[in-house]
Amino acid sequence: MGTFFTKLVGVTHDCPNGTNRQRVIRKYVKAGQRVFLIREPENQFDPEAIAAWIVHKGFFKNTKYHIGYISSSISCDLSGEIDDGKRATAQVKNVTGGIGGQPFGVNIEVSTAFKK
């Protein structure tokens, strides 16, 4: 798949543990930040799901936050590439929305390459 840009989905839904993704995006997600793409083959809604996580570096500890998902139209191909041994890296390109009560969104850049 090379390098491509996409918008995360599920950013307006709370995490199963109750964490509010919109609050996390507003407070911690910044352009240029690394995004960790984690396969979720046991996901009850989509066995090809790929979750997007960030790490917030706090003063005493780092905290991982689940901020959304790669859309199923992309994860259906990308999950196979990851399963076949490619590494997928990503970074935040920009955070959108948040004006006038609009929800925040996250655009990311994804790159894939075979692991060395």
TrEMBL record:
InterPro entries: HIRAN. Signal peptide: none annotated. Keywords: Hydrolase, Metal-binding. Residues 9-116 form the HIRAN domain. GO terms for molecular function: hydrolase activity, acting on acid anhydrides, in phosphorus-containing anhydrides; nucleic acid binding; zinc ion binding. The keyword Manganese does not apply. It comes from the Bacteria. The keyword Hydrolase applies. This is HIRAN domain-containing protein. It comes from Psychrosphaera ytuae.
